[in-house]
Amino acid sequence: MLHGGGYPFLFHAQGRDIKNDFAASGVEAIADLYDEKWYLVEAWDQS
Q1: What pLDDT digit, counting tens, does each position of 1-47 carry?
Q2: SS3 state at 37
Q3: Which residues partner with 13 through β-bridges?
Q4: Where are the domains of the chain?
């Protein structure tokens, strides 16, 4: 399945790791994530 030239992948990450990895992205919604909770993250590889 292609989406804008890339393909999707899923991974699990804790809220604190998501916040650290995406802090510079400017996405305010990540501030509401719980540090210790695990989340399923969908991302797109655009390479």
Answers
A1: 455 667 788 999 999 999 998 888 888 889 999 999 999 988 877 66
A2: coil
A3: 39
A4: 7-45
As a whole number of angstroms, the distance between CA 20 and CA 30 comes to 10
Amino acid making up residue 42: E
Token reading at 11: 């991974």
What the block records as the tokens of 8 is 């999707």
pTM of the complete model:
0.68
| Residue tagged 């590889």 (tokens) | 45
Block residue for tokens 């390479």: 47
- Enter the tokens of residue 43: 């991302």
> Residue 16 CB: number of other CB atoms within 10 A?
13
